[in-house]
Amino acid sequence: MLDAFSALGLSEPDGQVYAALVAAPQSTAAELAARCGLTAQQSGKALSRLAQHGMATRAPVERDRYLAVAPDVAIGTLIGHREAELRSARAEMHRLMDAFREASRFTDPARSVEVLTGGEAIAQRLAHLQDTSIQQVRGFDCPPYVQDPVANLTRQRTRLKAGVRYRTVYDREAVAWPGRLENEILIGVQDGEEARVRSTLPMKMILSDLRMAIIPISIGDSVLDAAYVIHPSALLQALDGLFEAEWDRAVPLQAALGTEPGPNEPESDQRKLLGLLAAGLTDESIARSLGWSARTTQRRLQGLMRELGATTRFQAGMAARERGWL
Q1: Which long-range contacts (CB under 8 A, 24 or more apart) does 306-311 make?
Q2: pLDDT number for residue 234
Q3: How many CB atoms lie within 10 A of CB 14?
């Protein structure tokens, strides 16, 4: 309760005295001091401040006694004032962002690129990038990772609920990461993430709106221990264009979601299998991502191709599209 009062700009003694006065109407300053473990002087000053805030009044007859104003009125008024202050602060933030963007057009080129070293520093900046995104977060998702990729699911879910759009292109190794498809990627899609898959990606990348990107310094390393932070510049615009080009070429992952099939639709496992095949995953990658053995994967692939009347994977893909399965 006292933390809530603090958020509204009240001191701890003010909050203590108001709560005590609500529970014991028509108390004196001395009685409230005894209840709250304060001195009479502290209690008296708190009552004066509460009266100024419209949260307490003197009793009509015994003027040394006080009454609490109803909480929905007293606290509601404070909340209204704080909300107005926050709206004003938000408006000022947008004004400053406009000035920041304008100034960024003429910034020193050397300041357009920042270097991060160490997995912890990279992980912290990745979290900050998502937490401060306003419109959308876009990314190329492929190994290596600075932390377990499943650990980001909670943060992504929070940002999605806040109205931030997530678009991710996964490469086949990301989808084939043991247990990740079921335990994170499909859950993220159900939460609202837009996901697509490519056989390979040019590099690992994450973009926040059109204000920042993070890319690895070296491509192909097995450990991610250094990265570039790209600020507004022609390079950031190029990365924006690269993402959109790869997004257009990628296969939607929704085909891999296991929904309840209709009378003429594939079973859940078949739908997942089709989606991963369309994304270009190898048999081994499919087996890892779905938790199947190599023999089970081969058996289900052969069964799917027989059902589609196909002898090659290309024919299977065409037949699935004709049936509306992809």
Answers
A1: 307/270
A2: 87
A3: 24
- For the 1-106 domain, the top CATH level (class) is mainly alpha
At 290 the three-state DSSP class reads: helix
The confidence score (pLDDT) of residue 259 equals 44
Which pLDDT value is given to residue 37?
Answer: 92
Write down the pLDDT at residue 245: 93
For tokens 């408006």, name the residue: 91
Domain 258-322 has CATH 1.20.1050.90: no
Cβ neighbours around 13 below 10 Å, total: 22
Q: Cβ atoms within 10 A of the Cβ of 81, count?
A: 13
For residue 198 the two structure tokens come to 């490519």
The two domains 112-254 and 258-322 share their CATH topology (first three levels equal):
no
Q: Two tokens at 47?
A: 């009552």
DSSP letter, residue 280: T
Q: Where are the domains of the chain?
A: 1-106, 112-254, 258-322
- Runs of H (alpha helix) within 12-118: 12-23, 29-36, 40-52, 71-104
pLDDT at 98: 74
Instruction: Let me know: does 46 contact 14? Beta carbons within 8 Å.
Output: yes
Question: What number does CATH give the domain 112-254?
Answer: 3.30.870.10
pLDDT at 148: 83
| Residue whose tokens read 């247990």 | 179
Kindly list the strands in the beta sheet with 27-28, ordered across the sheet, starting from the edge strand earlier in the chain.
27-28, 65-68, 56-58
> What confidence tens digit (pLDDT) does each residue in 207-239 have?
999 889 999 998 766 678 899 999 988 899 999
Mention every residue, 6+ apart, whose C-beta is less than 8 A from residue 88. none
Beta bridge partners of residue 168, listed in sequence order:
139, 195
In the chain, which residues have pLDDT < 70? 1-3, 101-110, 220-222, 254-268, 278-280, 314, 321-326
Q: Are 138 and 168 in contact (CB under 8 A)?
A: yes
Rounded Cα gap, residues 86 and 210, in angstroms:
25
